[in-house]
Design goal:
heterodimer; A: 289 residues; mainly alpha; 12 helices; 75% helix; 1% strand; globular; B: 291 residues; two-stranded antiparallel ribbon; 2 strands; 77% helix
C-alpha cells in the first residue's frame, strides 16, 4: 500500500519536472543559440549571401508571415465566430447542429498538409490565382477555423444562461443581446482564441509550401503576390545545411519570441475575463444589461 | 428600425455560417474527388498493401503502394502517444492532486507554450539535438523512427496534460471529501482513487492528440529520415504526410502520381476518422457504464 503512494508521488514529480524542463529547454536552447545572430539589422534587412540566407536578415519573411497570418485570421476568424454564434444562439434543429459539428470536426481532423494540397490544386491551379498570399492565407484560414470555432462556442456555452435570459426578458432583441451582453462577456476568451489561432497559423509550414510561400521575395505589397514566411524560411535554411545555421537559429529565435509574446497576451486576456466570470462586479453587470 | 437591424444581423450570422460550412464541405468533397481517379489505375488492394512506391518510371514501370507509409504513420504516432501519455499522466497527477488552484493558474499557460511552438522549430531542435545524440549513440545517420516519436511526444504533451488533468481534477473534487473524512494520505488517494477512476475518460483526451500526431508533417519529416522502408525503432521511415509534402511539388497535375498523393491524404483522413469514431464509441460505452 505504501509503495503505491510512493510510486504515484515519484511519477507525478517526474512527469511535471520533465514537462516543465521541456518548455525551459526548448526556449532556452533556441534563445541561447540564436541570441548571437539577432541584431537590428537581422530583423530589418533582406537575406543575402552566395547561398541565400547565409548572411543578411529576415525582414521580408517577418512581413510575409504577418500578411499570411492576418489574411488567415480575417478569413477564418470571422466565420468561425459567426458559426459559433449560430450554433449557440440561432440553431434550433438538432440535426442541422450535429451536421455542422460533423463538418467542422472533419476539417479539424484533416492534416494541414492535405489542406495545402487542396489549396494548391484549387486556388493556385484551377482558379489561376498562382502562388500568392491569398491562396496560402485561405489554406491557413481553413486550418484555424475549427480551432477558433471550438473555443468561441465553448466560451458562449459557458455563459450563465440567466444573463442571456434576463436580457431577453427585458425585451432586448437577439442582435442587441449578442452585441451588448454576449460578446463583451466573452471578449477575453474570444481575443485569446484568435491570438492562439494566429500563432497556430503563423507557425504552420505545411499548408504554405506550395501555395504562397517562396524561398525569396521582397516584402509583400499585394495579396496576389507570393511572399516569404518565417517557418518555411527556417525549413529551407535547415535544408541548406551547415552554412546557414547561424541565421536559422536567428529565425527560430524570432519565431519563439513572437510565440512567447502572443501567448502572454492570450493568457492575460483569458485571466482577466475569468476574474470577471467568477466575481462579477454588480455595477458592471448592470451596465452590461 | 431596431427590428430591421436585428434581422440584418441575424441574416449576416446565418449567411456567414452557411458560407463557412459550405466552404468546409467543399474542401472535403474536393479532396475525395481528386483522390478517386487513382483507383481507376491502381487497384485499391495494391495501393493499400503494396510496398513499392515508384511514382516516376525510371525503371520502366510505376507502382503506387503506400503500405510502408501507413505503417510508418501508425508506428510513429502510437509510439509518440505512449511516451507522451507516460509523462503527461504523471504531470496531470501532480497538477490535480499536489498543488493548489493558484499554482495551476501559473503552470497551465506555461505548459501551453509547448502548443504554440511551430512544428518547424520542433523539427529543427530535434535535428540539432536528438539526431546528433542518436548519431553519437551509433545509429546510422541519426534519423530514425524513435527520434521522430520523441519529438512528436513533446508536441503532444500540452494537449494530453490539459485534458487529462481536467479529468483528474473532476474526479478528485468528487471524492476529495470522502477521502479527507477517512483520513487517507493524499498520495495514496491519488494512486488508488484518482488514477484508476480517470483512466477511462483519458481515452477522450487521446482523440485530440492522435489527430495532431498523425497529421503532423514538418517536424516528423525533418527527423525521420524519409526512406520507403518497413519502419523499425532505430531505422528510417516515412509517413503519409511527409510523402505528400515531399512529392507535391514534383507531381504533374492530373497524373496518377498527383491523384495518388490525394488518395494517400484521403487514406490518412479515413484512418483518423476511424480511430476517432472507435474511441468515441468506446467512450460512450464507458460513460454509460459509469452512470
Amino acid at each position: 500500500m505504501r509503495i503505491r503512494s510512493i510510486l504515484a508521488r515519484l511519477w507525478a514529480w517526474a512527469g511535471i519536472l520533465l514537462t516543465i524542463g521541456m518548455v525551459l529547454f526548448l526556449f532556452g536552447f533556441v534563445f541561447w543559440k540564436g541570441a548571437g545572430s539577432i541584431s537590428l539589422e537581422f530583423v530589418t534587412t533582406a537575406p543575402k549571401g552566395a547561398v541565400l540566407g547565409m548572411e543578411g536578415g529576415i525582414w521580408p519573411a517577418i512581413a510575409g508571415s504577418f500578411c499570411f497570418t492576418l489574411t488567415a485570421v480575417l478569413l477564418g476568424g470571422i466565420p468561425a465566430v459567426a458559426a459559433a454564434l449560430y450554433m449557440v444562439f440561432y440553431c434550433r434543429h438538432k440535426k442541422l447542429q450535429s451536421l455542422i459539428r460533423a463538418v467542422i470536426q472533419c476539417i479539424a481532423g484533416i492534416p494541414s498538409i492535405v489542406l495545402g494540397l487542396f489549396s494548391y490544386s484549387f486556388f493556385v491551379r484551377d482558379l489561376g490565382l498562382g502562388r500568392c498570399i491569398l491562396s496560402g492565407g485561405i489554406a491557413l484560414a481553413v486550418m484555424i477555423l475549427p480551432f477558433i470555432e471550438v473555443r468561441a462556442e465553448k466560451a458562449f456555452r459557458e455563459l450563465p444562461p440567466q444573463t442571456i435570459q434576463s436580457s431577453y426578458a427585458l425585451g432586448c432583441a437577439r442582435s442587441y443581446t449578442i452585441w451588448h451582453v454576449v460578446l463583451p462577456a466573452c471578449r477575453g476568451e474570444l481575443v485569446s482564441g484568435v491570438i492562439l489561432g494566429a500563432c497556430y497559423a503563423m507557425g504552420a509550414t505545411a499548408p504554405l509550401i506550395f501555395t504562397g510561400a517562396v524561398a525569396y521575395a521582397s516584402a509583400p505589397t499585394s495579396l496576389l503576390q507570393p511572399a516569404m514566411a518565417l517557418p518555411l524560411h527556417l525549413y529551407l535554411l535547415v535544408a541548406q545545411g551547415a552554412t546557414s545555421l547561424g541565421t536559422a537559429y536567428g529565425t527560430a529565435f524570432v519565431m519563439m519570441a513572437l510565440i512567447l509574446v502572443s501567448n502572454l497576451l492570450a493568457t492575460l486576456f483569458t485571466g482577466r475575463s475569468e476574474r470577471h466570470g467568477s466575481h462579477p462586479h454588480p455595477a458592471r453587470r448592470q451596465r452590461r444589461l | 428600425m431596431r427590428k430591421w437591424i436585428d434581422r440584418i444581423w441575424s441574416a449576416a450570422v446565418v449567411l456567414l455560417t452557411a458560407l463557412a460550412v459550405l466552404a468546409l464541405a467543399f474542401v472535403i468533397y474536393f479532396i475525395v474527388r481528386e483522390a478517386l481517379p487513382t483507383f481507376r489505375e491502381v487497384p485499391l488492394r495494391d495501393f493499400l498493401f503494396g510496398s513499392r512506391w515508384m511514382p516516376i518510371d525510371y525503371t520502366g514501370s510505376t507502382s503506387f503502394g503506400i503500405f510502408h507509409f501507413i505503417l510508418g504513420t501508425l508506428y510513429v504516432s502510437a509510439l509518440a502517444m505512449l511516451l507522451a501519455l507516460a509523462v503527461s499522466l504523471g504531470a496531470s497527477l501532480f497538477l490535480s492532486c499536489a498543488v493548489g488552484a493558484r499554482t495551476r493558474q501559473i503552470l497551465y499557460p506555461f505548459i501551453d507554450l509547448l502548443a504554440g511552438i511551430p512544428s518547424v522549430v520542433y523539427g529543427f531542435v530535434g535535428l540539432m539535438v536528438l539526431v546528433k545524440l542518436f548519431l553519437k549513440a551509433g545509429v546510422h545517420t541519426g534519423s530514425c523512427v524513435l527520434a521522430a516519436a520523441i519529438v512528436l511526444a513533446v508536441m503532444l504533451l500540452p494537449y494530453l496534460v490539459s485534458s487529462c488533468s481536467e479529468t483528474m481534477l473532476k474526479v478528485k473534487c468528487r471524492y476529495e471529501g470522502a477521502a479527507d473524512a477517512l483520513g487517507i494520505d493524499r498520495w495514496h488517494f491519488a494512486a488508488t482513487v484518482v488514477l484508476p477512476a480517470s483512466f477511462r475518460s483519458i481515452l477522450l483526451s487521446m482523440i485530440l492528440a492522435i489527430g495532431r500526431a498523425m497529421g503532423e508533417t514538418m517536424a516528423v519529416m525533418m527527423v525521420m529520415g524519409n526512406a520507403n522502408l518497413f519502419p523499425t525503432l532505430l531505422g528510417k521511415g516515412e509517413t503519409i504526410a511527409s510523402v505528400i509534402a515531399l512529392e507535391m511539388g514534383t507531381a504533374v497535375a492530373g497524373s496518377t502520381h498527383y491523384h495518388a498523393l490525394y488518395a494517400a491524404g484521403l487514406v490518412l483522413m479515413l484512418m483518423l476518422f476511424l480511430i476517432n469514431s472507435a474511441i468515441g464509441l468506446l467512450r460512450r460505452r464507458f460513460l454509460r457504464e459509469e452512470v
